[in-house]
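Input record, target 12 of the design panel.
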């Protein structure tokens, strides 16, 4: 058997946009989302309830549809990162990476030797794959979150770290770190986001950010190639529209 391919990495390698959907930590819901054709599912282990015991079924549901399981871990910790990969995650998202040294820590935990120092263990992605320890590095996705203004200030150095697949500009925390809590639309915040994305793209690295239906085209035109969005607002909008139509019909 060959190692299971990482769809998000394939899309990025081809210069295409990789779409990652967030909003569920439930394997049945992942199954329902499968036919949409998204490239990956964002599993929330920092702000959400995903734990190690959950990851087997969650990542299997992603595997069933060929979607990349992308897990945001709670911190930049060696054991946290490689254990999450051991439980079947194909991708890791690490929060608050603010320096070149911290970005290098992600690589050391997320890659086997000679690229890193990941603990030598065959994850569930390696079952039946005889050369897993030699090929896993090619299919493991590493994303660092740039969500503090200090990360933007250190961006040129962070971008020098090899084997990071996506440098993801996170609007909400970035706005907070700039003194504009809850105001991602503030001109200073938007200018900082745009500037960071431009620098990532100019460096020949893959930029990522949070998007919605109103801004996704703008960001992809800027060169963003990894986009994450929550599907829950679409459910809310659709349900609200239906209820409004029902009330309007009843008044007619």
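The sequence produced for target 12 reads:
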């Amino acid at each position: 058997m060959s190692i299971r391919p990482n769809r998000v990495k394939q899309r990025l390698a081809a210069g295409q946009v990789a779409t990652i959907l967030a909003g569920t930590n439930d394997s049945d819901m992942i199954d329902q989302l499968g036919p949409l054709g998204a490239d990956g599912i964002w599993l929330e282990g920092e702000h959400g309830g995903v734990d190690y015991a959950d990851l087997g079924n969650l990542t299997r549901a992603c595997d069933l549809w060929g979607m990349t399981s992308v897990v945001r871990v709670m911190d930049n910790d060696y054991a946290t990162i490689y254990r999450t990969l051991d439980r079947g995650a194909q991708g890791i998202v690490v929060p608050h990476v603010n320096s070149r040294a911290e970005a290098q820590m992600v690589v050391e935990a997320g890659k086997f030797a000679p690229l890193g120092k990941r603990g030598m263990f065959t994850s569930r992605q390696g079952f039946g794959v005889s050369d897993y320890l030699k090929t896993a590095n090619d299919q493991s996705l590493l994303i660092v979150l740039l969500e503090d203004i200090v990360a933007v200030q250190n961006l040129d150095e962070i971008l020098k770290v090899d084997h990071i697949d996506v440098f993801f500009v996170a609007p909400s925390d970035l706005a907070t770190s700039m003194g504009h809590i809850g105001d991602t639309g503030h001109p200073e915040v938007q200018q900082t986001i745009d500037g960071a994305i431009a620098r990532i793209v100019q460096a020949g690295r893959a930029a990522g950010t949070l998007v919605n239906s109103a801004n996704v085209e703008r960001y992809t035109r800027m060169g963003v190639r990894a986009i994450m969005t929550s599907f829950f607002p679409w459910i809310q909008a659709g349900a609200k529209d239906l209820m409004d139509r029902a009330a309007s019909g009843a008044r007619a």
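Residues 100 and 157 are 5 Å apart (CA to CA).
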